[in-house]
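User: Quick sanity check before I run a bigger batch. Here is a single chain. Can you write out its predicted 3D structure?
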Amino acid sequence: MSELNEENRLLSEFYHSLRSPRRQYLIEYLSRVRQDKYTTSELAKYISSVERGISMTHATGEPYRNVYNALSQTHLPTLADTKIISYNNDRQIITHGENFELAALLLDTTKPIVGFFIRR
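Assistant: Done. Predicted structure follows.
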């Protein structure tokens, strides 16, 4: 496969992986809160708090459980498939994957550009 085709394939996979707001919140959190590892519970609390506009300590109940389940069943495996994160399903532990920095860079550069065009 040519290098150009490989780049197009990878870019397509990244855009697919990053199209969900919850996945974007997750990447932004991992970029901002630099740790060696994260738990699914921690990420679910963060995303639930963002979606509901509340503090992480108040992110509980059914909305939290819905986010937790969606992360475990869909979002984390999708990001792991593109090596944006590494995900240990048994232990519910997440670490940065080999493509994490590239994914974070894509979000950092495209969100302001999209925002510019929306506001003009």
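The chain is about 70% helix and 10% strand.

User: Great, the batch can go ahead then.
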